[in-house]
């Protein structure tokens, strides 16, 4: 958010057309939603930046619309198992909006038609709605036997992940197109890679967290701690896109104009500098998935082993080894 804050402020100033957001030019309430908010700490910063920028926009146009700033309502969305209790306990006491929880998959419609004025999602759209069916089907050419991700896999596996991603992003865009008012804005911060490259090659395979976790699970299977069948039926439901791929999906949807699209280096890679911190972060991200599939009794062993792997090869912690980027996209709902 620190990276894109000035851009979001600039784009709201330039692109938010207040007079078009309501049939009579007046807006009593302004609806904002964060899709994939998690437990809120990062989301609260984003909502502060967005609501403050919109307030400034209203104040700058007070003579045109002849109205005070509206009431802001922020809807915090994440899956139904998200810790909304922690989110609401952590709400900033000094805030310029009323808050509500919005549990459910952001790949589906969640709000009334043409009710949302500004949509936001950060570091969430790499999560798929499901693992591609083909990669866990022994009869499929995309069966990902002995692997838990598309990194280092055959082209058929990569294609299955790419197809699932395109389907899910299209569902997300379609749902938001129904919810956004004509002229409403949507800011997306999407993790990805700068270009499409050979996922089966050493450049990609050596960088991904999942490769190390997969090797740990395979070692555990050899020791009889878990079964090979358990590994074959487990794949991570995440996919990192690249700018041209994401742009093509948006353009195919047809409901939005792309107002701005920029690429940024991922600042997160510079914040995690020790093996312990690295293992802790990824345990927080993946523990629930692994517990549901393998059981809680192996989780400590997996991430202790992961930390030890990083300590034994500290070069993997170097920021330059991480090629991930942030794709910033600002979309405007086309007028109807």
Automatic annotation (TrEMBL):
InterPro entries in UniProt: MeTrfase_7 (IPR005299), MeTrfase_capping (IPR042086), SAM-dependent_MTases_sf (IPR029063)
Family membership noted in the UniProt record: Belongs to the methyltransferase superfamily. Type-7 methyltransferase family.
Protein name: Loganic acid O-methyltransferase
Keyword presence, Chaperone: no
Any GO BP annotation: methylation
Keywords of this entry: Magnesium, Metal-binding, Methyltransferase, Transferase
Pfam families attached to this UniProt entry: Methyltransf_7 (PF03492)
């Amino acid at each position: 958010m620190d990276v894109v804050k000035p851009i979001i402020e600039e784009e709201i100033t330039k692109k938010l057309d207040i007079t078009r957001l309501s049939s009579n030019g007046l807006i009593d309430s302004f609806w904002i939603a964060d899709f994939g908010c998690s437990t809120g700490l990062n989301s609260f910063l984003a909502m502060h930046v967005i609501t403050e920028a919109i307030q400034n926009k209203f104040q700058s146009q007070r003579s045109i619309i002849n109205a005070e700033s509206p009431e802001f309502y922020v809807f915090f969305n994440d899956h139904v198992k998200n810790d909304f209790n922690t989110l609401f306990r952590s709400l900033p006491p000094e805030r310029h909006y009323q808050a509500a929880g919005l549990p459910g998959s952001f790949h589906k419609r969640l709000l009334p038609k043409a009710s949302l004025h500004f949509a936001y999602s950060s570091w969430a759209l790499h999560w798929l709605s499901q693992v591609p069916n083909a990669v866990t089907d022994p009869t499929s050419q995309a069966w990902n036997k002995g692997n838990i991700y598309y990194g280092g896999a055959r082209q058929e596996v990569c294609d299955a992940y790419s197809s699932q991603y395109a389907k899910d992003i299209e569902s997300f865009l379609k749902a938001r197109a129904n919810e956004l008012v004509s002229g409403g804005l949507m800011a997306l911060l999407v993790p990805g890679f700068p270009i499409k490259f050979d996922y089966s090659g050493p450049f990609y395979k050596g960088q991904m967290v999942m490769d190390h976790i997969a090797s740990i699970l395979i070692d555990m299977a050899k020791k009889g701690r878990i079964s090979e069948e358990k590994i074959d039926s487990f794949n991570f439901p995440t996919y990192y896109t690249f700018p041209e791929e994401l742009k093509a999906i948006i353009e195919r949807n047809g409901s939005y104009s792309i107002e701005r699209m920029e690429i940024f280096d991922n600042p997160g890679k510079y914040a995690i500098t020790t093996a312990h911190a690295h293992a802790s972060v990824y345990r927080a991200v993946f523990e629930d998935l692994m517990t549901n599939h393998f059981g809680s009794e192996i989780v400590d062993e997996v991430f202790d082993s992961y930390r030890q792997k990083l300590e034994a090869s500290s070069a993997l912690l170097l920021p330059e080894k991480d090629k991930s980027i942030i794709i910033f996209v600002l979309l405007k709902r086309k007028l109807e």
